Amino acid sequence: MTQPHRRAVPRTVTDVLLWLLATDVAAAHQPHPAQPGRCANLRCAGQAYPCPPARDAHRAYQAATNPPLPARGRAQVATPTTAARFAGWFRPTRTVVAAPPQSTPYPRAA
Fold it and tell me: Which of 7, 42, 64, 109 has the fewest CB atoms within 10 Å, i.e. the most exposed one?
């Protein structure tokens, strides 16, 4: 069985499973041909179109799709001299010797 609403996934889709589910629900909840203001799906039982499942499918489609971001100039790449400046950043520069623990006198139990 072919599903005409399932076509190639657009490049802007970040969650393919959510996008496929949204397209399936949107295809199942179309306006009635004789009454365009009503949903044709039998589960909606004559609800106004767009019905809650159709609205949810639209929101899921938007959530699964990231609009392409416009390019805003060139990316800045760190040069090796800049990267070398931070080499060993998290290593201590000198050795730290911990002081030996001091014993505290405890009163003896009688």
Answer: 109
